[in-house]
Design brief:
Distance between the termini: 74 Å
Number of strands: 0
Oligomer: single chain
Strand content: under 5%
Helix content: over 70%
Shape: elongated
Length: 255
């Protein structure tokens, strides 16, 4: 085993990582931190590929690494009191997550969409933690919007009929609106990402339930009520226009 080229390559990569880590600790050289962060990620990817573990476990380990990098970067930023100290770990974190996601997308036809859904949920968790770490609501927009995809994948896996899939997403839409109300207790800005994602779902669920007159009429009625409720709550008079559009569409489908 010690003469296996892949084993020797892995050993060399680990040695390089250790060299850069020691250099960073000893001399506070940020370039070494950049090198060690990305070198370790590449070493993990190469090592996991060599031991041939299942795709789901591979993705779980790498997404855990991405999350560890993100939290580690946050800790370094607080310890050294500067953003530049955390940037190598932040970028390595998102780089690993992007690699795992792209890998899952490419392999979805072979490993199934279930694995892709799990990876996307990992991305959602990473985005939520990013919102906490960076104290920026823009990450919540990404999390709430992206979560729609794995929700739809699982709905499609367990419910082959498009109408039922639309009903499930309609349930998610209601949950998002409830979450928006709950989030507004702290600040109204926190409700915006959930409302934006709910608006997107309202279009998707209408499309999915369109072939069933009863289901689409009920869904359009629910959407109209939610739009009017949010318009009154947030004092967004402009939201009454799409509410009126959904109401007229509901009347048309119910005829």
């Amino acid at each position: 085993c010690s003469h296996d080229p892949s084993f020797l390559s892995l050993a060399a990569m680990i040695t390089i990582v250790l060299f850069y880590v020691v250099t960073d600790i000893a001399f506070r050289w940020e370039l070494a931190r950049w090198a060690s962060a990305f070198a370790f990620a590449l070493t993990m990817i190469f090592g996991l590929n060599e031991i041939k573990i299942p795709a789901v476990l591979n993705g779980l380990i790498l997404m855990t690494l991405a999350l560890t990098y993100l939290i580690g970067g946050y800790a370094l930023k607080n310890f050294e009191k500067k953003l530049s100290a955390a940037l190598p770990l932040y970028l390595a974190s998102y780089g690993v997550a992007a690699f795992v996601t792209l890998q899952a997308i490419v392999s979805a036809p072979f490993n199934g969409s279930d694995n892709l859904a799990k990876v996307l949920i990992g991305d959602v968790i990473l985005l939520i933690v990013s919102a906490i770490v960076h104290r920026q609501y823009v990450w919540v927009y990404g999390a709430t919007t992206l979560f729609i995809v794995p929700a739809f994948i699982y709905a499609k896996l367990f419910l082959p009929d498009a109408v039922n899939q639309g009903i499930v997403l309609g349930g998610l839409m209601v949950i998002y609106v409830i979450a928006a109300f709950a989030g507004s207790v702290r600040t109204t800005r926190l409700s915006d990402p959930f409302l934006t994602a709910a608006a997107l779902i309202s279009i998707i669920t209408t499309t999915l339930t369109w072939k069933n007159p009863i289901s689409v009429t009920v869904m359009l009625s629910l959407i109209t009520i939610l739009y009017i409720t949010v318009a009154l709550w947030r004092k967004w008079s402009w939201l009454l226009l799409p509410a009126l559009g959904f109401l007229n569409l509901g009347i048309f489908t119910g005829m």
